[in-house]
Please model this.
Amino acid sequence: MVKESSREGSLKKKRKTAAAADSETDVDIYKKSIEFEEKEALARPNDADAQIYFNTCKEIRQLFGEISELKTKNNPDNKMKIMEKTTDVCLLLVLLKKLNRMEKVRLVFPKEQLATEKQKVDSINLQYQNLLYEANHLISEYRKCFQFKSKDEHIELVPVDEFLLEAPENLTKKFFKFDENDEMMKHELRLARLEWELQQRIHLADMCKKLEEEKKKLEADITERKNKLDKLGPLLATVMEATKPVQEHLGLHIDKTLAEHKLASLLPNSLYLFYANIDAYRQVNDKSMNVEIVGDQDEAIQWKEVELNEPVVEEDDLSDAEQEAEAQESEEIVETKKRRHRKSVHVDPLEERKRKLLQVHPLSIEVTVSVKDGPSIKIKFSYYVKLEIVTVSATVDIPSNITGNAAREVLSNENVLIELVEGDFGLESPNPCTSYQLKRVGLGSFQSLVPELGYVYGWAQKVCGIDYLNKQTNKFVTKQTADHMSQTNVELVMKTVKKRLKSRYALAKQLEDLERNVIPTLPATVDLPRTTISSLTKWSSSTYQDFCQAKFTESLLETDLIFPNDIFYLATVTRDSANLQAFVVIKNDYPVAPPIFSLSLNYKGAKNSQNDDNIRDMERAINVDWNHEFSNANWLLSAQITSLCVCLDIYLETDDPSTFQQNTMYIKSSCGRNRRKPFKFRNIGVGVYTQ
Amino acid sequence: MVNKLNKRFYNTVLSQTFTPCGNYLVVGDIYGTISIFHLSKLVNQGSTITRQDQIPTNSFTIKEDIQINSLLTTKSHLVVGTVGEILGYTWKNVKLSKKATPSWTIEIPNAKDSFEKPDVNCLVLEPENNVLFAACGDNNVYSFNLETRKNIKTFKGHKNYVHCLTHLNNKLISGGEDGLVLMWDARTAAAVGKIEPYTRDKVSRPELGPWIGGVGINDDWLLCGGGPRLSLWHLRSLNISTVFPIDDKGIHVAEIFHDKIFAGGRSPLFYQMSFNGDIVIEIPTAAVTTYSAIHQDEPFQTLCIAGSSPKIDVCSNFIYKNLQLSLC
Model:
């Protein structure tokens, strides 16, 4: 197209420059020739033109060849021939030009045709898209219509089956042959059901109103009766008051027990359970025992009221907001309770939470157990409400005949109850939640709180029926099992406490003597000679550290039988130049586990169970060869020490008979391949020692 | 109560022996209990030994609190020397039965009417004629025919009880609490020689006493020790050739084994030495005093050392301890 226009342009230029005057006719001819040429071009076959073109080109090439040939020959007459041939070539070029023009025309025509076709396609496409859009729009509108919710759909209707059964027949009969697919029918059914629903609801509303009225009537009745009862109260009280002189006269303490029982009702659940059981136990088994509820009654009443008003909120589920609310609430309580606190209302919330967590119930139970003519122990049980634990603090009333330090120590306040059950030191809270609770308010381990709160022995929780593992189960069942647990444990624990107190007193009496380097006299039933030359020369308290540091205790430490909580003493037994040092380890459950002795003899070098079989045998004789009945508590330790003296005598007398005169009765000084010494006592005649 | 200190803590092993097959170790303690350990299983197990493996596979009590002084293995029986009698148990009984009963008993002929029965401190077998020698607490050594279990000879000469015995080529050597080492003709029961180590200044240790706890012998040499130092004596001249420089408070085990001397006693170590007195190997022991050390080459090399401890040390190469057995 561009070429064509440029060609036209150039033609126009020619026309303007060459023949400006005769324009009209010239234009016509030009136009005509063009039209003719166009027609000719369309009429002629392409292939023929191509053939002509090739031929023409061939001829031109030929002619050029001839011209160059003629030029090289350089003949004068050749010039003519060259001219001639040049003319031929020019003619042929004209022909080529013509062919070219026709080709151009041929090209233009299909192009135009293509353009018109394209336009047509575009318009059709546009039309199609318009229609598509319209269709989509219609579909969406259609859908919207379908999604429209009618109000009746939200109404809960009686199910169809029920409706068909219950509604009157005139409503339902046309639906018995109900066809799922019949939309009209479906619609009618719905209308019928809606109508039925309306009827029903009206009916029910009426009924509700009636019942409401009835309720009001009953309420009025109840208040009336209540008022009557209230008036009766003071009347009864005056009657009671009037009977008081009579009661006193008859010596009945109904009042006192009544007061106590009233107080008991204010106890927290677990302590109440304990109180009920221990009181029963006291009445039946041990009249010498004393059970008392201590604490301020008014405070307890207040506490109970607060507890009732306060909604029970699970501590664990508290969100922050709730926590704050609770904190405020507690502040209010503080205000009403103690006016002083008013000025410092804005306490540190953490401190407040700490205080709240460590709140103790104002009432606690004091149980006093005593041994005849001996010490008595007062055990105080307190309940920590938020921690849900029972703590124990004890005070021992030591009789005046016990004066020695060591003796008083084994009877000291907390020492008596330690390890009542094996491994129970009461330092770690049995409630698994406690450590988390303490962490939340920024308190350290429970152990650090023990001096302040008291000991949390496992048995103390048991006698109060607290079982942490079963807490989650059904409440009713828990109550029963708790009661059962408390009942069975109260007896067990109280017996153990009494036993412990007795054995501790027995131990203290022995220690009292031992501290004065006197071996207590043994009862006649104990088979041991009473005449020993070796004697106790020193008896002093010791510690676990000292025990560990002594070399000769190594093998005993390896047995895992010695604990830091045991009671340690260092005894020295002497005969002439020989002295025997003995670590005495008294277990907390003396005499169930007998005291353990670890020996070291200083005589011709240090000898102990690590380097001398005889010392080892001696330890065996003292530590192991006993039958440990409970009745032995009174003399077991003394007997062991007496035995220790005898063993030292035997050792020295058999080892060096020339220096140590024989005092003990034995037959052979050594026997067997192990050359063992006669440490075994046999009750033959006056008593003989054998191997 | 489980965690009470019990007497097992103070247990002592006085005697050990291997079964004829060599796969089991039999141990007798002072409480009268025989314990059997499955040694071959433990040795093969290597390092993965639990506490459960260390305890005996079987044990039975012969008589409560009567110490088992000596044990001896014969092809058919385990021979047990306790107090006042020698008992024979079949091996099947020993390995499997919880309440084994003896298949035969030899009472020690007890001339004196003492109410203390004599200990059977050492048992030695002369396999050719099937003769059993027993060193006893009544100062005598007895020989018994194992077939008939009749007393053949009584070897009288010691003035106190006899600690140890050893036997080689019809020669019987015994060591006693009286400090004598006596040499006997095993067939005639005639004393053919005698040495008194406690009288020699070189070896005597008066503070420990004269007693002889262990004797050993080979063709040329005699080994003995106890209260006196462990020493090697030339058999023909009866002169001391070597005094062993070991730190002990009494020897209870002395043996000549090939070209080595084994010795143990009240000492924290068990020694292996050469004839000229050089210490070759020292093995630390669990026991305060070693009372028994036995060894075997077949079916596997083992040395078991036991004494006043409930633990038994086992060395599978004689050089260091690689296993510990426990009676409790």
The two ends of chain B are 16 Å apart (CA to CA).
